[in-house]
């Protein structure tokens, strides 16, 4: 299975909603993002959205793998593809944000070389209508991680 661009006519919202539970938030960035996915047959099993911030920085706004395909390496494959695409497009820094309650994701990103660079206090409280809970913890703050890719991947 290879990772291919996804065009706006076939946005896999079901997958994107796994990582970001509000469609209004997804719609605020998805149409300005480079969208890629892994297909199995006619169905997407993984997806990510790469959103340009400025000429040197890009953010992975959404990365998700269908629940029945998790823990099989697809997330890592998507993340590595995102880093490669960012590098090809001339970006030097890749950012990714996740909730303070997203313990597995925080570990995963750091193992792949991302470092915590910022905390957006109360981000999820201010931008989402309903409280989000993960791992028995309320998701309040966005943890921003960054990986510098100018000279390495």
From the structure above, extract its key features:
alpha+beta, two-stranded antiparallel sheet, 7-stranded mixed sheet, 153 residues, Aminopeptidase, globular
Characterize this entry briefly.
With 153 residues, the chain is of the alpha+beta class. The chain has helices at residues 13-19, 23-27, 74-88, 103-111, 123-127, and strands at residues 3-5, 34-40, 43-52, 57-65, 93-99, 115-120, 133-134, 137-138, 142-148. 27% of the residues lie in helices and 35% in strands.
Structural notes for this entry:
The protein has helices at 13-19, 23-27, 74-88, 103-111, 123-127, and strands at 3-5, 34-40, 43-52, 57-65, 93-99, 115-120, 133-134, 137-138, 142-148. The chain has 153 residues and is of the alpha+beta class. Strands 1-2-3-4-5-9-6 form a seven-stranded mixed sheet, with helices on both faces. It has a two-stranded antiparallel sheet with strand order 7-8. The model has no long low-confidence stretch (mean pLDDT 93). This is GNAT family N-acetyltransferase. Keywords: Acyltransferase, Transferase. Residues 1-150 form the N-acetyltransferase domain.
């Amino acid at each position: 299975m290879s990772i291919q661009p996804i065009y706006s006519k076939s946005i896999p919202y079901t997958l994107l909603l796994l990582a970001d539970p509000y469609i209004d938030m997804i719609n605020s960035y998805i149409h300005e993002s480079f969208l890629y996915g892994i297909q199995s047959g006619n169905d997407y099993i993984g997806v990510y959205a790469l959103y340009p911030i400025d000429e040197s920085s890009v953010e992975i706004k959404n990365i998700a793998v269908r629940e029945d395909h998790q823990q099989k390496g697809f997330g890592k494959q998507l993340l590595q593809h995102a880093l490669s695409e960012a590098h090809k497009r001339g970006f030097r820094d890749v950012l990714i944000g996740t909730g303070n309650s997203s313990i597995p994701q925080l570990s995963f990103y750091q193992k792949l070389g991302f470092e915590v660079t910022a905390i957006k206090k109360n981000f999820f409280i201010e931008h989402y209508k309903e409280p989000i809970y993960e791992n028995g913890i309320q998701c309040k703050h966005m943890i921003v991680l960054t990986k510098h890719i100018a000279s390495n991947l």
